[in-house]
Specification:
alpha/beta; Rossmann fold; ten-stranded mixed beta sheet; 13 strands; globular; hydrolase; hydrolase activity; EC 3.1.1.-; Carboxylic ester hydrolase; AB_hydrolase_fold
Length: 479
């Protein structure tokens, strides 16, 4: 079975074989190849006749083996600027729209990942779900205005903004409501959402930030240092116009950082797309006054520490990690002692330090500032544990719960009856927000309401205020 959507660029034939209509590989911009490689996103070229939209488009260039791509039926190319749309019907209904930005440190990931399949969510909520591909790594985040021009910065954000403009203009052809668009992002996708908000983007009506390390938006100094390192690599110096393999080879030579995570390819404050860091803009700028739902998982960093042996986590190692995060203005021993009050193991303390510094505290600062300016904010913490011992409620575990694709990654959240019930709870709350409702009590500051999602779901007040306060204003470069 097929279905047809008629956009202003041409007609598309989607796949309606599963009861949900899926339009895969829909182009939202011209291919960023050749002379357009280092250029801002350009409008897609119209086509004649009926264009097939039943196969996912190529993913953005990234480090992934050809064998793995072939196993998933995917290809990789710079010509990657496409959308995927799941809709109950390509009719005249005006359904709420959820646009989801994938994570992956802005070097990995794609909108066609099995975890992000929008079929269940679209069917369950009678909503339109959109995912997208955009430029990643060097091709999306190289800060070299003197090399490529002032409008060559933050190309990933420019792609995302262009895609959101396309959705605003065209989603009516897919049964969506262009006046009811929620943008959501997880991990680096959430960082992108915060950057879009800081840049004053008004192409969506509500925003969801899941597990975003918001402190990773970079200064131009940091971005320039990465660019200098890249431009000086043998591959890029040797090639007048390097090919994708040479670009990825140079990208691999950039030290990504571990603790604290540095994110060399995240957005930068370029003065064009972004003028201020999101943590500053939330306090000092007139960001779009839209409702925000935001939060983190309780044990974000455990999945990254899982590769380290237990013997690594000595008293000295944990103290050194705390010192790295705390800098000279905090007593590292006092910081560790504050976490040991809960009788955590050294491994758990080490992970909790980075979870709070990198994810929870900056998210808290961002939403608190937005709430104190009178905007609706709904704060959560996911506590649903992974069935894999030691991971707890780890990074990425929110994805199978939200999309309902528990079978795509059972190690993250489980795939039994209780996990399915948790997924239904998360979906119901998120869908209420997407529909313009208030999913739970608003968060209004330090003592406000936080929804704890887990085996005992419910509201907590003043949640973890003391521990998060440890990291308050630990981002001096941002004001």
């Amino acid at each position: 079975m097929t279905a047809v959507a008629r956009t202003s660029y041409g007609a598309l034939r989607g796949d309606a074989s599963t009861g949900i209509v899926v339009f895969r590989g829909v182009p939202y911009a011209a291919a960023p190849t050749g002379e357009r490689r280092w250029r801002p996103t350009q409008p897609v070229i119209s086509w004649a006749g009926l264009r097939e939209a039943v196969v996912f488009g190529p993913i953005a260039p990234q480090d992934v083996s050809p064998e793995r791509l072939a196993k998933r039926g995917l290809t990789m190319s710079e010509d990657c600027l496409t959308l995927n749309i799941w809709t109950p019907a390509a009719d005249d209904s005006r359904r709420p729209v959820l646009v989801f930005l994938h994570g992956g440190g802005q070097t990995q990931g794609h909108g066609s990942a099995p975890l992000l399949d929008g079929s269940r969510l679209a069917r369950h909520g009678d909503v339109v779900v959109v995912t997208m591909n955009f430029r990643l790594g060097v091709l999306g985040a190289l800060y070299a205005p003197d090399w490529h021009g002032a409008d060559s910065t933050n190309l990933t954000l420019r792609d995302q903004r262009h895609a959101l403009q396309w959705v605003r203009e065209q989603i009516g052809a897919f049964g969506g409501d262009p006046s009811a668009i929620t943008v959501a992002g997880q991990s680096s996708g959430a960082i992108a959402v915060s950057a879009l908000l800081a840049g004053g983007c008004d192409l969506f009506d509500r925003a969801i930030l899941q597990s975003g390390g918001l402190e990773r938006v970079r200064s131009t100094t940091a971005a320039s240092a990465v660019a200098e390192q890249l431009i000086s690599t043998e591959a890029l110096v040797r090639a007048e116009e390097p090919d994708v393999a040479e670009i990825l080879a140079a990208q691999r030579d950039v030290e990504p950082g571990f603790v604290p995570p540095q994110g060399p390819f995240h957005p930068c404050i370029d003065g064009d797309v972004i003028e201020e860091h999101p943590l500053v803009a939330a306090r000092s700028c007139a960001m779009p006054a839209i409702p925000i739902l935001a939060g983190t998982t309780r044990d974000e960093w455990r999945i990254f520490d899982a590769a380290l042996d237990d013997g690594v986590f000595t008293e000295q190692y944990v103290r050194d990690r705390a010192q790295t995060l705390a800098g000279d203005s905090l007593d590292a021993d006092a910081v560790v002692a504050a976490y040991r009050v809960d009788q955590l193991t050294l491994r758990d303390v080490a992970s909790a330090l980075v979870t709070d510094y990198h994810f929870t505290a900056p998210t808290e600062q961002f939403v608190r500032a937005h709430a104190e300016r009178g905007n609706p904010v709904f704060r959560y913490e996911l506590r649903w544990p992974s069935p894999r011992a030691g991971l707890g409620a780890c990074h990425d575990s929110c994805l199978p719960l939200l999309f309902g694709n528990l079978d795509a990654a059972p190690a993250l959240a489980g795939n039994d009856d209780s996990a399915r019930q948790m997924s239904e709870t998360v979906q119901a709350l998120w869908l209420n927000f997407v529909r313009g409702e208030e999913p739970w009590e608003r968060y209004d500051g330090v003592s406000g309401a936080t929804m704890l999602l887990g085996r005992d779901t419910g509201i907590s007040r003043g949640h973890r205020g003391e521990q998060l306060g440890t990291w308050e204003n630990r981002y001096p470069a941002y004001g």
